[in-house]
Specification:
Blueprint (H helix, E strand, L loop, with lengths): L21 H9 L11 H12 L2 H9 L3 H17 L4 H21 L4 H18 L1 H6 L2 H15 L4 H18 L1 H8 L3 H14 L4 H15 L4 H12 L6 H17 L24 H16 L16 H11 L4 H20 L1
Length: 353
């Protein structure tokens, strides 16, 4: 399987091993966000056990060969792994493409199953973030995401994760094309974005991803004007108690976002030099900058902690270099890299205007 070697949860999986009846007893907590019913088939249960303990490769393999319900576990595992654990864009895109195909097939076989529609939107949304939201909109992916989310909420209005995704849909479009064009062309609305995030938190108040994506949405919609509220949301996300590997990764991502967003010193300059001789003002969005960020971190990880190394040509000045060194030896350094590259885009976006 492409990218299988990178799909390993970088923390202790033992707290998230739900053997035997433990899975049934914990199911409502584990699936409070996506409203997935407890499966009767043992093979599907095993696929979800692998997912919850962070063995995403096994979850994909077991879920993909089973029933449509099993394929949902595979699709979610692939999307989470591509988001948090796979730094190679080509392998990540392949994971997301396969996840979207499985989820789309599930919507045909299970047309009244809300989570099949949500997971289709989830995989397509993460794919769009990888290739850039603007490119995804041009390819018509935005309309597919919106349709799938609307259908998921029509079938299950209490689907908290679908509310998160729809809130993010509105925010991402406004951030990339502007409020007027976003409203006229895609029906994007800042007020609706906030309402969906608020509804998600009402339905699942202990969700780290709900708090974190609400913070991201506010920064996309309002920038520094909502920074204080965003920081508080990041704090709440970072304080959430995870119930499985995915939630653990969500919490680590929130901690990384908080550390960056709450640090004024790091917000004063771009993160990296862009590729191909472009100027700093042409710095690309975080989706495309991520590979350079990972390369900087890998350079640092190749040396023992404390080793003095020459300044990477990709890193601008001291504050960023110091933070790269700080995060490089973390178990979940990919979450920090993702936050770093996202912050880089936030800093440089006004420069491009």
């Amino acid at each position: 399987m492409a990218g299988a070697k990178t799909l390993r949860f970088p923390y202790d999986p033992k707290p998230y091993s739900y053997d035997g009846e433990a899975l049934r007893r914990s199911w409502n907590r584990l699936h409070k966000g996506d409203c997935e019913p407890y499966p009767d088939a043992a093979a599907v249960q095993q696929a979800w056990r692998a997912f919850h303990r962070g063995d995403f490769t096994d979850a994909i393999a077991q879920g993909a060969k089973g029933s449509p319900l099993g394929s949902l576990a595979a699709s979610k595992a692939a999307a989470v792994a591509a988001t948090y654990l796979e730094e190679d864009d080509r392998r990540a895109l392949k994971l997301l493409e396969d996840a979207a195909k499985r989820a789309e097939e599930a919507t045909r076989k299970l047309p009244d199953h809300a989570n099949s529609w949500y997971l289709l939107a989830f995989a397509l949304g993460r794919y769009a973030q990888r290739i850039s939201i603007v490119k995804a909109l041009a390819e018509g992916i935005g309309g597919k995401v919106r349709h799938a989310l609307d259908r998921a909420l029509e079938l299950e209005p209490k689907h908290a994760d679908a509310h998160i995704a729809l809130g993010l849909y509105h925010a991402e479009i406004i951030d990339k094309v502007g409020a007027l064009a976003g409203r006229l062309t895609y029906g994007a609305d800042a007020g609706k974005s906030v309402k969906h995030f608020e509804q998600a938190l009402k339905l699942n108040p202990d969700s780290a991803i709900a708090h974190m994506e609400f913070a991201n949405g506010l920064l996309m919609l309002h920038g520094d004007a909502k920074k204080k509220q965003a920081v508080e949301l990041y704090r709440k996300a970072a304080a959430c108690k995870p119930a499985d590997a995915m939630e653990h990764l969500d919490v680590e991502q929130a901690k990384a976002e908080l550390e960056l967003t709450d640090s004024a010193a790091l917000l004063k300059e771009p993160l990296i030099y862009p590729r191909m001789g472009a100027t700093v003002c042409d710095f690309r969005p975080w989706q495309e900058a991520r590979s350079d960020v990972y390369q900087v971190i890998h350079e640092r990880r190749a040396t023992p902690p404390g080793t003095k190394i020459a300044r990477s040509l990709r890193v601008t000045r001291g504050p960023w270099r110091a933070f790269v060194a700080h995060l490089a030896y973390r178990p979940c350094y990919r979450a920090s890299a993702r936050a770093l590259s996202r912050q880089g885009a936030r800093v440089t976006r006004p420069m491009r205007g």
